[in-house]
Design brief:
The complex is a heterotrimer of chains A (361), B (298) and C (262).
Chain A (H helix, E strand, L loop, with lengths): L14 E10 L2 E11 L4 E5 L6 H9 L6 E6 L2 E2 L10 E4 L11 H11 L4 H14 L15 H13 L5 E5 L7 H18 L2 E6 L2 H7 L2 E6 L2 E6 L1 H6 L4 H6 L4 E9 L4 E4 L2 E3 L13 E6 L13 E12 L3 E8 L2 E8 L12 E6 L5 E2 L1
Parallel strand pairs in A: 3-8, 3-9, 6-7, 7-8
Antiparallel strand pairs in A: 1-2, 1-4, 4-5, 9-10, 11-12, 11-14, 12-13, 14-19, 15-16, 15-18, 16-17
Helix pairs in contact in A: 2-3, 2-4, 3-4
Chain B lengths: L1 H10 L3 H7 L5 H22 L10 H5 L5 H31 L8 H13 L3 H11 L4 H10 L3 H4 L7 H25 L3 H9 L4 H29 L3 H7 L6 H10 L6 H29 L5
Helix pairs in contact in B: 3-15, 5-10, 5-12, 6-10, 7-13, 10-12, 11-12, 12-15, 14-15
Chain C lengths: L1 H27 L10 H8 L1 H34 L5 H13 L2 H11 L12 H29 L3 H10 L4 H12 L1 H16 L3 H5 L5 H11 L3 H26 L10
Helix pairs in contact in C: 1-12, 2-12, 3-6, 3-9, 4-6, 6-9, 7-8, 9-12
Chain lengths: 361, 298, 262
Amino acid sequence: MSAVNNSKANSDAFLAINGVTKSFGAVQVVRGADIAISKGEFVSFLGPSGCGKTTILRMVAGFETPTTGRIVIDGKDITDLKPNQRKIGMVFQSYALFPNLTVAGNIGFGLKVAGKARAEIDQRVEEMLKLIGLPELSDRFPWQLSGGQQQRVALARALAPRPAVLLLDEPLSALDAKIRVSLREEIRAIQKELGITTIFVTHDQEEALSMSDRVMVMYQGRIEQIGAPFEVYNHPKTKFVANFVGTLSTMEGTIADAAKGSVDAAGTRFDGVRLPAGATNGAAVTLALRPEALRRDRRDGDLSLSGEIIDVDFLGSVIRIDIKAGGEKLSLDAFNDPTTPPPAIGETMTVHFAPDAVLTL
Amino acid sequence: MSVQSAMPMAGSGKPNFRLPLNWLGLLPFIVFALLFLVLPTVHIVVGAFQDRDGAFTLQNLLDLRNGTIPASYWISVKISVASAALGCLIGFGMAAAVTLGDLPRWMKSPQLTFSGVASNFAGVPLAFAFLATYGPVGVVAVIMRQSFDIVLSRDLGFNILSFWGLTSVYLFFQIPLMILIITPALDGLKREWREAAEVLGATGVQYWRMVALPILFPSLLGTFALLFANAFGAVATAMAFTGSSLNIVPIQLFAQIRGDVLGNPNLGYAMAFGMIVVTGIANGVYIWLRTRSERWLK
Amino acid sequence: MTRLLAWIAFLFGALYFALPLIGMTEFSLKMRRGVYSLDAYVKVFADPRFQETFSFSVMMALATIAFGVLLVVPTAYWVRLKMPGARPWIEFVTLLPLVIPAIVIVFGYIRLYNTSSFLPLTGSTTGTNILLMFGYATLALPYMYRSVDTGLRTIDVATLTEAAQSLGAGWVTILSRVILPNVLIAVLSGAFLTFAIVIGEFTMAALLDRPAFGPYMQLLGANRAYEPAALAVIAFGITWACMALIQLLARFAPKPAKPVKE
């Protein structure tokens, strides 16, 4: 994982989005976005629909003009360039293959409009077909392909003219779950092979975490956090990021002793919690825990909590157990053990977790 | 009536009789279409190849070369092609302007409504409207004469009872018809196609030439064939408009049917047959071109 | 730039369509010298020939609509339910009247159904009226069929039929009580379009020599100056009313399949 340092200077960046805002009438959909993306980096824009991620992507592509701010690719300000002069590859959620052209015609489109020679186009199309693993489908029309095949062709079409930047606008959302997983691995492999700078827009946190070098989480037009998946997941900077990325159980508490990190929540005192700087005694605080941070076995230094099991979901490799303790609901993920049946609803259970695993929001 | 013929279906429980009996449900329609659409047309076609005694002959068709008939076919075809082509072009432009965003979107619904009205406002009243406006005592002519001392026919060579006059009257229903048919097709052009083309480096012209027009081609062609037939068969508009000063085929045929006794009745068949052939060719060309572009259609 | 051109083109187009409408309206009001008046309309409405031909055409239109509904609804229903394979053929036939000129079709009628034929419809007034009605039904067929077929597409014909059958309904009941009410909006749209077509139709009525509104307008146009303009305004009003009613109906069109009966 090539986590790129966030503090890297913008001058270093291959693709820089500097102070970009976008308003439609009175509605500001992007409220100041700054991000620097290095050459070859794969960055996901993650957020719920309407958070502004697609708008930023469309501004990079040139379909929308920023209200303020600049967009720079490879040292060149492209903010005022038309989409057809930006040398960008884009893949759409709806595939958007040209229905009147064959697979080969679609892939060769970008080269053809650039006036490349026939032989060069044919060669490049063949190369791209091999890259996406569909060499035998060159004469098919889009309607003769499955969704996954269409999206692969769309990817090849975007890559054929050797763009400087690849933009992927929720490319997997319209596909079946199985194909979605296999295709995301394939996209990542191709991206690494070509070393192409890529922005991937998605509302699926699993996609974003599994594919990206860095994830940019957005909410209501603002960038909430930019960081490597590991960082964003484990050290969310805001309440929104903590809730949106991954599952989270929360407990409302009061700080009993700020110096020792003692918090009263769910009828229990927890010590050694990492509190934010400047926390004062008596102040309210929200404690949050990932399901995988909770365990059934106790380790040294663990904090513990007992409660009643209110739900058991058998998910295959993992069992999710919901317990209710002191009025708060917590979820626990345990690996499936084929020799032990899952506990029953109504039983009492004690869960354990390291003080470090507690997030305060 | 269709209900009754379908009745036995409900009672018959024998599955092996079911399949052929399904046709009975369509019997009323088939009988109607045969009696009032197919047979009359076939009768005309057969009659075109028969003499008075019913013997086979090509004389009727050869007679089409005589007198004013070839000229009337020619002018009919010219007016139909001109009004269909201009109707397609202008209608396409107007539909595209509203659908693709050069004009405000709210204009789309009123434009469609008006098109629905105007495409059906054909025939005698349409001719009256144009005469009342552009005729010798029409509103425009009067205003031009009183305000500018210009007599349209004398000073501008403007004659409404002419080829272009009749064509512009036909456009009053041709353009709206095109708008009605092509607007849904334009709506079917996905925004992503345009964006995908742009981002791949295509100019607007390249997008239209390589993607949008090929996709619209079947609809455009079909509409052209329809507009052509629409103009070619129009009798009432032309007759109320020009009387008999423009000798288009339908008017000649109308006269032929009315005044039967004088001429050769089988010549009428030949003229009608000629009309079927012309509209048939127009639609044949459409079907032929369409199948060529059909490979990518589902 | 293109926006400016678009507006110029639009204004030009608007002028082209508006002028004849304004022209005919203005002209229709000028019968009395020097002032605007409704004299032309008064004259037209008072003309017994107007009343006769107009009511004749209205009656023809209603008959055509009734016949068209009886013919098209069961056929379109049957094709959807039992014979989807026949759909392209039926559709092709219904589109033929757009390709074969009306004058050719009516010419065929005159020759095929003359007094000495197997079906001597033109031999009597009633017969000719029926023949004219069939002719109008043919002209309206493309619109009627298309409208009804679109209406049927929005409801689940097979399920509705099976539901009705399971409740013990026969075919007549299914069609009249279940299918027709569900496609009523579509049928009415087709009906108003048919009305607009029939009311001003000229060629068929003239060649079959029936006293319809179309030939009357034509005759008046040849002999009078201001009345034709008034007639044009009236005809335009009727067309507009028909289209407005279709638009209005479209708002009530059913979206999903409705339950058959409580």
